[in-house]
Design brief:
The chain is mainly α. It has one domain. Helix content is 81%, strand content 0%. The protein contains two helices and no strands. Helix 1 packs antiparallel against helix 2. The longest helix is centred in the C-terminal third of the chain and has 30 residues. The radius of gyration is 15 Å and the shape is elongated. 0% of the residues are buried.
Length: 63
Amino acid sequence: MSKDIKQKILDELDSRISRLEEHENDEKPADNQYSELNHALSHAIGRPLMTELRDVRDFVERL
């Protein structure tokens, strides 16, 4: 894998991880039950997704 392509992949993974981290501690909306459910789902999906993205990033870095 060329270093340029590898760096582009690493940069994109870093960007996605960073965006997930930015929203990790968002306050829970209390306007309605759907907002609360959406927040709960985002939180439940976000953490495992961050872990997976970090694992993929580590793998790409070792290539």
